[in-house]
Input
Amino acid sequence: MASLARRALSVASPLTLRIVAECPVTKARVCDLILPHCTVNTPVFMPVGTQGTLKGITVDQLEDLGCQICLGNTYHLGMRPGPDLIEKANDLHGFMNWKRNLLTDSGGFQMVSLVELSEVTEEGVKFKSPYDGKEILLSPEKSISIQNSLGSDIMMQLDDVVSSTVTGPRVEEAMHRSVRWLDRCIAANKNPHKQNLFAIIQGGLNSKLRKACLDEMTKRDVPGFAIGGLSGGEEKDDFWRMVTLSTDHLPREKPRYLMGVGYAVDLVVCVALGCDMFDCVFPTRTARFGSALVPWGSLQVKQKQYAKDFQPIDPDCQCPTCKRHSRAYLHALFKSDTAAMHHVTIHNISYQLTLMRSVRQSIMEGRFPEFIQSFMKRMFPSRDQYPSWTVDALASVNITLQ
Amino acid sequence: MAGGRMQLELSRVVQGRSRLGVLKGLGRTGQHSLEVPGCLLYTHFGTVPHLTQDTLHTLRNLPSVTQVTLSNIAEHQEVLEEFKDGFRKFAGLHDTVVYCSLHDPATLCPTGYTTNKTVSVWGSGGRIELTVAKFMALQKTVQPDWYQSMADGETWQNSTSRKRVRKSVDRTLAHLDECLLVHQKSQELDGVEVFGVVEGGDILEERVRSARETAKRPVAGFCLDGLQTASMDQRLRTQLITAVNKELPEDKPRLLQGVGRPDEVLACVEAGVDLFESFFPFQVTERGCALCFSFDISPDPERAGRAPPEVLELSEEKDAAGDTKQNGDLNHDDQTQMTSFEINLKDKRYQDDFRPLVEGCGCYCCKNHQRAYLHHLLVTNELLAGVLLMIHNTSHYHGFFSALREALAKDKLDLLKTRVLRAGAQQMEREEQDG
Output
């Protein structure tokens, strides 16, 4: 009966979460996230295509890698080419010709991290455009308006973003304001039947504030929740505690999106702590510097030691790069052509997506705890090199690292 | 000489000079062939610029011959020596013929470093000096299917003296003889073809001398050097090539180095050139432009007498942007100047142009993306711009060569010239006026 009711609701909702499996040991789950353009299998890593492109990779290549959802950036696209043009182009999907799902963030993070002289008021965030020096106000309404034009399947609320290293009353002010801005975002959404608006839990590293935020935001009927305000340089010991506190108090039947997390170890641990969705620029950004992600860490292809190394980046990897090219060739190619970057980008995206697929598979087969053990073993030279925060975090969900 | 099986089969010779045919017996097993007139596949170190296998293979009918250059490869000699199995395998190239040239045609080298015994190439770490011994050691390591012999082509500057031109001919012949000596003794190069290089700057007698002498050597074909786009106008180039080709055997292919603009290609084919390097699409890509000149020679009564839309567009753009070249100035240093065979996608007018780059073009870029998107990618400095433009420009350029061959087969060269040159007409007029 309950499932019938849920199905009836989902006809109107552009998001349905089907829980496929739950780990009996940790808080991990496997879900199918049904979105307007296709189903997304979670846990999922979402590559970031900031300006309507994934750094040298075509949409076909991205599709072939199995990517079901990627990110676009409201701030950047709002500046160039602007929402009006994208609307004319049949929204961001049409503009970049991406047939699967898109998630756009609100622009809030860039406002704070990229632009000078940004001033936050109740109205919104005031800042100076880097392109023409004009003063712009990014309000909740404006952010949602741009995202409505972009036509993303998942939109993020505009939140009052505060660095995770900031303490004091500013954190509380930002948390409360984020709640108020969430309500304004919900009201401003012109396309609730096509576009899903996610709330973003704030509260910094303060459990009380986080809890208060969770209590308030979960009262709103949004299709999903993001855990924000983390992954900004804070201590990992604080980081994981806030993540697990959040997932403890977020509804089971809605997706949990942990923003800005993408390192392999962080992904695995945070899946164990109950998160479903992740995004990070790291894998694609580091690729362009020749840094290839591998099960045992990373490999700096541009380093001299690889000049005569005739194996692929990862002999076990099935990506197009590893199937055809050696470390030595890529090492040399970095001196001759940009394609070297593309090769490594493809490999890194493949690594991330494959990792998540393996995690998902292991949860479905009831062997996620074993997966974690062998993952950590592969990643670190020895047990005493395991970061203490991972030991603590996993212990909190009944995993004792061997 | 332990040569290969390269054979030129001509099916037509139009008006005594333009040649149409197939270059057969290419590669170690002699299985590959290349239609002529045709172009080689231009690469950086075995990679078509910006492209990985997946993006490269969205292109149909790629040339069967891949060009690699010692300017990219020389600095990696040690690595290749340790690898042992040759460049093709090292680069993950499958089923292609590897042709190794000395220089990268897209970049002009600094001059003044050539000596009687050496030439220099510039890698990522700086200048590398090559003696014939080192040059041949490289060939043995690269193991191409075909290479040009070491040559001194430093005659492309206007100020090159007669004495210097003569030296370049003498040195190049000496290098060729030395190369062939080593080649004949090398088992690693068994079955590998060597092309001799014809030099001579802009001096007719030297060109003829170089051609005659080179033709006496047991080479599989001829590279024509020192005639690069930046070095002279087409009228002189045609004159020199015509004179050179008179001295060369009809049944051996002629590869022209450093010339790629469509109008120049047409003129050089008419002068008897068979093969070109395909670096021009790369140069167009690097300046954020897309090739769009028409090469359509299909019989369409509705089109006759009406300028194709791209031509009108180009005229508008030229009027708006002013002259793309300064009057009377060939601008030797800048091969990066935009030509009238392309559109500049950074131009504001493409901001909301939702058409493909070229209507009717079947390439991946035109099937999937619009001018507005390319404009956005260029304005925001996104890497994908290079990928998509390279795909389109490569496709368009090879389409042009295909049309050229068809035109020769069907006696429609004049029609093709009209189509292609209408776009560049204003450009050429200016060149002719300046002599």
